[in-house]
């Protein structure tokens, strides 16, 4: 049990304070089986267990490994009790869910292409990932996926792994985080097992998936070894896919020869999804988890959690847990109670007229023009942005928005929303302006 206490202490500095408080602290250690390297953890319910499994098990295992130098399997049971039908299953492990044959155990079952919702900001990366999974080692080698936290990079990487295994059962897929890679290397050096290490990374693998490659920066030996692994795999037409939070050129302390190799193939980015995609992600997630999620609640969450899909899902999981704990329906009232800290004071709805006013001020156009028939670019761009922000911040349907802006039909509105997302991605200064107006509207 001391081991679990130590693990908790170490986890506290590894995960964000909110996550630690909300997801890690409620975990109790049921028992640790040193013989079989297994740890059984008790969690409040299966939502909690699943969330921990998908988001923190890797941290837990790596922390355990740092203390024990062995790999632990993590199992969950419920501590149950608040809910009868849950209590009945209290001692059954929530997992592991059976994996299709052949998928390497490191791959998370849920992270598949089918579960990935694409939109204008991640479509390119998803298409590239699918192409690589279809023809590994032939096109786009390496594929380098980069973007901010919680935007689906790891999800896509796992999805490639699953798809390759399904399509080519004979191909050996190897997924590692670069942290695991570095640890593997250190222990190989320490235990004089370099030839086994090289065999594993260079010979015994047809598709190498490395998550968060930026962590090898500044570590000479890791970069050196990676350089050789890369060359070996690449020259034998074996696929390499990496993710990172930055472009290769922007990763500090990365050797030039490594940098250049990361740029040999295709570089694809993921950016925060737009409003419609965020709503779609929430709905997909709710459906997968059997959560009954009303539209207005989905839109409310999507309106407020804008930069990180993990947080978007986290909000849904929290809401679901609160609904079940309090035995209440998932509605707007519950959102303000359960997610008050997330969505803050801005829960109050923004009025469409406030959006019109703010856009007119920002772009120096009149409300009459904004709602009128003129089609000059000086008017259409602000009009499209106004539609976009009304969609995002107010509870208006597409036809209502069309009506508000001079009786346009809803396909015009959809088109406007798409144009703005594209504009936002292509033009950083436009993006800053849009975000400025949004922030200002939220604050009022
Ligand atoms: P990253 O590696 O970029 O930090 P992850 O791949 O870990 O992000 O994604 C965080 C969470 O958000 C995961 O649960 C993942 O399934 C989910 N997610 C991210 N993007 C999407 C998407 N486009 N569709 C569905 N789920 C997504
Ligand atoms: Mg990741």
Notes on the structure:
With 444 residues, the chain is an alpha/beta fold. It is 55% helix and 10% strand. The chain has 22 helices and eight strands. The chain has helices spanning 2-14, 17-24, 46-55, 57-68, 84-87, 123-134, 153-167, 178-190, 194-203, 220-235, 256-262, 275-288, 295-304, 309-326, 332-338, 340-343, 352-363, 367-370, 377-393, 398-404, 410-426, 428-443, and strands spanning 28-33, 38-43, 73-78, 143-147, 173-177, 207-211, 239-244, 266-270. The protein is globular. Residues 81-100 have low confidence and may be disordered.
CATH superfamily of the largest domain: P-loop containing nucleotide triphosphate hydrolases
Helix/strand/pairing category: alpha/beta
- The second-level CATH architecture of the largest domain is 3-Layer(aba) Sandwich
Under CATH at level 1, the class of the largest domain stands as Alpha Beta
Write down the secondary-structure element order.
HHEEHHEHHEHEHHEHEHEHHHHHHHHHHH
Number of helices: 22
Q: In the residues, how many domains can be counted?
A: 4
* Fraction in beta strands: 5-15%
Please bin the fraction of helical residues.
55-70%
Tell me the span between the first and last alpha carbons: 51 Å
The ligands found in this model are: adenosine-5'-diphosphate, magnesium ion
Rg to the nearest angstrom?
A: 24 Å
Q: What is the strand arrangement across the widest sheet?
A: 5-6-7-4-8
Could you name the CATH topology of the largest domain?
Rossmann fold
């Amino acid at each position: 049990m001391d081991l679990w206490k130590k693990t908790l202490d170490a986890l506290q500095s590894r995960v964000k304070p909110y996550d630690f408080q909300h997801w890690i602290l409620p975990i109790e250690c049921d028992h640790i089986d040193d013989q079989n390297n297994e740890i059984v953890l008790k969690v409040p319910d299966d939502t909690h267990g699943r969330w921990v499994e998908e988001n923190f098990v890797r941290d837990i295992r790596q922390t355990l490994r740092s203390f024990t130098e062995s790999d632990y399997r993590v199992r969950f049971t419920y501590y149950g009790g608040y809910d009868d039908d849950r209590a009945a299953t209290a001692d059954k492990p929530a997992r592991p869910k059976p994996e299709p044959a052949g998928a390497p155990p490191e791959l998370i079952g849920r992270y598949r292409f089918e579960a990935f919702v694409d939109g204008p900001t991640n479509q390119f990366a998803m298409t590239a990932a699918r192409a690589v999974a279809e023809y590994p080692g032939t096109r786009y080698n390496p594929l380098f996926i980069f973007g901010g936290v919680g935007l689906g990079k790891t999800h896509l990487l796992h999805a490639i792994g699953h798809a390759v295994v399904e399509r080519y059962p004979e191909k050996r897929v190897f997924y590692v985080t670069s942290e695991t890679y570095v640890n593997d290397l250190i222990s190989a050096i320490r235990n004089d097992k370099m030839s086994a290490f090289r065999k594993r990374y260079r010979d015994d693998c047809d598709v190498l998936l490395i998550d968060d490659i930026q962590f090898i920066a500044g570590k000479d030996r890791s970069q050196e070894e990676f350089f050789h692994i890369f060359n070996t795999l690449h020259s034998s037409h074996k696929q390499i896919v990496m993710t990172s939070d930055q472009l290769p050129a922007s990763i500090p302390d990365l050797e030039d020869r490594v940098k250049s190799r990361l740029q040999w193939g295709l570089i694809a980015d993921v950016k925060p999804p737009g409003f419609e995609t965020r709503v779609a992600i929430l709905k997909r997630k709710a459906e997968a988890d059997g959560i009954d999620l009303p539209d207005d609640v989905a839109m409310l969450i999507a309106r407020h959690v804008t930069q990180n899909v993990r947080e978007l899902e986290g909000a849904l999981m929290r809401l679901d847990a609160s609904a079940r704990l309090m035995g209440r329906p998932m509605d707007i009232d519950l959102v303000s109670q359960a997610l008050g800290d997330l969505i803050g004071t801005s829960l109050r709805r923004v009025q469409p007229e406030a959006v019109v006013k703010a856009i007119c001020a920002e772009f120096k156009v009149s409300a009459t023009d904004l709602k009128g028939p003129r089609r000059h670019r000086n008017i259409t761009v602000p009009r499209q942005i106004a539609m976009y922000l009304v969609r995002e911040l107010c509870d208006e349907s597409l036809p209502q928005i069309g009506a508000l802006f001079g009786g346009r039909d809803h396909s015009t509105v959809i088109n406007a929303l798409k144009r703005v997302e594209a504009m936002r991605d292509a033009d950083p200064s436009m993006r800053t302006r849009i975000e400025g107006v949004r922030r200002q509207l939220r604050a009022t």
